[in-house]
Amino acid sequence: MLLCDEKGNLVDGDDIMAIAALDMLAQKTLAGKTLVATVMSNAGLEAAIKSGGGKMVRTAVGDRNVMM
Q: How far apart are CA 13 and CA 2, in angstroms?
């Protein structure tokens, strides 16, 4: 999935996960207050999740390693 902002700039996967996870943390719907992401996700994502009161667990790359 690709998203873009109102100016046509691409919103990358880490940004999308941050938006969704922070919203879920605010609504208290993120299971275990934990986001699962691959080792390819950047440190900024982890910092954002921590600042929102959650934690991030990293897993190996591949769809089979990340489940909802």
A: 8
Per-residue pLDDT tens for 17-55? Answer: 999 999 999 999 999 999 999 999 999 999 999 999 999
Rg of the chain, C-alpha, whole Å:
12
- Dihedral angle computed from the Cα positions of residues 53, 36, 10 and 50, in that order, rounded to the nearest 10 degrees: 20
Model pTM score: 0.85
C-alpha dihedral sign at 68, 24, 17, 58: negative
Q: Distance (Å, rounded) from C-alpha 1 to C-alpha 22?
A: 19
Contacts of 51 (CB under 8 A, 6+ apart): none
Pairing of strands 10-11, 3-4: antiparallel
Per-residue pLDDT at 5: 92
